[in-house]
Design a protein that fits this description.
Blueprint lengths: L2 E2 L2 H32 L1 H9 L4 H16 L2 E14 L1 E7 L13 H15 L4 E7 L3 E8 L2 H9 L13 H13 L7 E7 L7 H13 L3 E6 L6 E2 L1 E3 L5 E4 L9 E2 L3 H11 L2 E3 L6 H9 L5 E13 L2 H16 L2 H18 L7 H8 L2 H12 L6 H14 L2 H11 L5 H21 L4 H18 L4 H14 L40 H8 L29
Parallel strand pairs: 3-4, 3-6, 6-7, 7-12
Antiparallel strand pairs: 1-2, 2-13, 4-5, 8-11, 9-10
Helix pairs in contact: 1-2, 1-3, 3-10, 4-5, 4-9, 6-7, 7-8, 12-13, 13-14, 14-15, 14-16, 15-16, 16-17, 17-18, 18-19
């Protein structure tokens, strides 16, 4: 049975077609009269041309009106396949998050980015917890993103029953929530915090190691600035009352604790989203884009399938056939058909930096890329090209600063290649600078872990990370890297070239790539049921000497 979304439009379709036909016929007669004013020969040419133009335009207009009415008939069985991962958001709601070195505050920015992340990850199974002195489960894993948004809107330091900041319970509760989820999808714990943890750092590091052992990815979203700042106390209307004070009546100063965040990230083999990034939610979204998602299938039957495309197609065919009968239109159509292949053969000229790279002049290429960078400072690819060329030219300072800028790109492929080259740069520096060898190896390990979050199955990156871990564990001189010549740095142009790849070292103590892959893969996980905890209880007074922010 045929139905229409707008039946009145179907009734008007013949009228619309007739009106367009009549208007086109009147225009043709006028054209013939004007041609006859010049000569009879011109009039004969005008009469022979476009005889079917008026009927074709009228029929096409009528078909367009029928399509506009929304015809429907038939039924269709629709199978919807969704892919989702398991992700838990943990929000720090301690009073230090009320500091306003981020706009509108650390907590305000964290909640804003968390809301955007919930919207961007529609279809994934999301959970939510909040923590201060202890941790509270607000929502178990669910696909109901709107419920999480309501919880986020209500988060405030006053709902915590225990003040202070403790990362260890937040990580432990994230493990409980994610360990209970199906293991066919990757598991991610995203923690929004300023890192000012008052509990024992060793406890947080121990829980972080549990995350790594269970194959749970940890992403720490840093909030706040490095400079110490005061914590404002405001009333219900947002009016400033005073500064948060300690027991002695002195204003409390708080700052982002990068040492804590770095230690926890290293223990969990996770990554840190920098507080300086303008789009933290986008950075987290890009990090989890490559993770494995579980597939869910849903089928339903749709009655009255939309068929507006059929009259539209018929109308387009009528107009196309009429157009091709005209000699000029046919020639234009042939030209448009041949234009794309001809345009595809045109290549842009290579820049001076690319030519220098092709000649093997890495120092000249680095200088030329640096000159181009001054005119394209917002181009992440330009930063990547400059950093890679500087690394090949032996300028570690310029290479590190340029690649670090490229590593903040929202393009996941470019970000991966920049992180890969940062890891290789740190390996090269570890080989050349034995005094600071451990610091360089730590930087290399962190860069490769962040790169593997973007492309978890990249074997060269996995091998290099395992190599770094063995070197940090005292693997000996036999395991020192022997880097190959750098590839072309053109991340987005004809230069091609991905991140540089570290070759497997020679020596009897090395591991094969398959063995390194097994070491880095997550171990098996078992099911665990968790229960929902209560929140919003009466806040207990902190004992003397215990920090309450």
């Amino acid at each position: 049975m045929i139905t229409f979304d707008a039946p009145i439009v179907v009734l008007l379709a013949p009228i619309v077609g007739a009106a367009v036909w009549a208007a086109a016929a009147w225009a043709r007669r006028s054209r013939v009269r004007r041609a006859a004013a010049w000569s009879e020969a011109t009039a004969n040419i005008a009469r022979r041309a476009g005889k079917l133009g008026a009927p074709a335009l009228g029929l096409a207009a009528a078909l367009a009106a029928v399509a506009l009415s929304g015809p429907r008939w038939g039924e269709e069985r629709i199978v919807t396949e969704t892919r989702g991962l398991n992700l838990v958001l943990a929000i720090d709601i301690s009073r230090s998050m009320l500091a306003e070195d981020a706009k509108p505050s650390r907590l305000g920015r964290a909640l804003r980015e968390a809301r955007r992340l919930v919207q961007d990850l529609d279809g994934d199974r999301l959970g939510l917890s909040a923590f201060a002195g202890t941790s509270y489960i607000l929502s178990p894993l669910s696909v109901d993103g709107s419920a999480l948004t309501l919880y986020l809107d209500a988060l405030d330091p006053d709902i915590a029953s225990e003040g202070g900041t403790s990362l260890a319970p937040a990580l432990a509760q994230g493990i409980d929530l994610l360990h209970a989820s199906p293991e066919i999808a990757d598991r991610v714990l995203v923690v929004f915090t300023d890192g000012e943890a008052h509990d024992s750092l060793e406890q947080a590091v121990q829980e972080a190691r549990r995350l790594a052992a269970l194959g749970i990815h940890l992403i720490l979203v840093a909030e706040g600035g490095r400079q110490p700042t005061k914590i404002p106390v405001r009333d219900d209307r947002g009016t400033f009352v005073s500064w948060q004070q300690d027991e002695s009546g002195n204003p409390i100063l708080t700052s982002r604790r990068e040492d804590v965040l770095g230690a926890v990230a290293d223990a969990a083999q996770g990554t840190i989203v920098a507080a300086e990034l303008p789009d933290q939610a986008g950075a987290v979204r890009d990090l989890v884009a490559s993770y494995k998602r579980a597939t869910a299938t849903e089928s339903r039957t749709q009655h009255g399938r939309p068929r507006a495309w059929i009259p539209l197609l018929l109308g387009a065919l009528v107009l196309g056939a009429q157009t091709l009968t005209r000699r000029t239109a046919a020639l234009i159509g042939v030209l448009l058909f041949l234009a794309p292949p001809l345009a595809g053969q045109v290549q842009r000229p290579r820049s001076s930096a690319e030519k220098a790279w092709d000649r093997g002049d890495v120092r000249g290429a680095a200088a030329d890329y640096l000159a181009e960078l001054k005119a394209h400072e917002d181009d992440d690819t330009a930063w990547y090209n400059t950093g890679t060329a500087a690394m090949a030219a032996g300028d570690p300072a310029l290479a590190r600063s340029s690649l670090a800028r490229a590593a903040a790109s929202l393009d996941p492929d470019l970000r991966f290649r920049a992180l890969y080259n940062l890891g290789l740069l740190a390996l090269l520096q570890a080989k050349a600078d034995s005094t600071n060898r451990e610091a360089h190896l730590a930087n290399a390990a962190r860069a490769y872990r962040e790169a593997l979050l973007l492309q978890p199955h990249d074997k060269p990156a996995k091998w290099n990370l395992e190599l770094v871990n063995r070197m940090r564990g005292g693997g000996g001189q036999a395991n020192k890297p022997n880097p190959p010549p750098p590839p072309s740095p053109g991340a987005g142009g004809e230069g091609g070239g991905g991140g540089q790849q570290q070759q497997q070292p020679q020596g009897g103590g090395g591991m094969s790539e398959s063995q390194a892959d097994q070491v880095l893969n997550s171990i098996g996980q078992e099911e665990l049921r968790t229960r929902r905890d209560r929140t919003g209880r009466t806040r207990r007074a902190a004992p003397p000497g215990v920090k309450d922010w």
